Amino acid sequence: MRKISEAQYKKIIKMFNDQVNKETSAMTIVLSSWGRNSELVKLENEASAKKEEFIKLFQ
Questions:
Q1: Rounded CA gap, 14 and 57, in Å?
Q2: Please, which of 17, 21, 36, 44 could form a disulfide with 31 given CB 3.0 to 4.6 Å?
């Protein structure tokens, strides 16, 4: 397995987090416009879990 530097690790995590945040933002707009505000908390929880699972890949 290839080793990565701490700077590369931080860059990868930041890029992944930014992508998840963009997806979450887009879905928030859609859900809000449909009046489905009750699903926003679920969306945020899923995004957080997705980020945590990705970070675990590097540990």
A1: 14
A2: 36
Global pTM value: 0.76
What domain range is 20 assigned to?
Answer: 7-32+39-57
Burial of 14 (0-12, 13-18, 19+ CB in 10 A): exposed
Residue pointed to by tokens 């707009």 = 29
For residue 3, which phi and psi values (nearest 5 degrees)? -85, 145
Residue 1 domain-assigned (yes or no): no
Per-residue pLDDT band for 58 (boundaries 50, 70, 90) equals confident
**CA gap 31, 25 in Å, rounded:** 10
Q: By the 8 A CB rule, do 31 and 12 touch? A: no
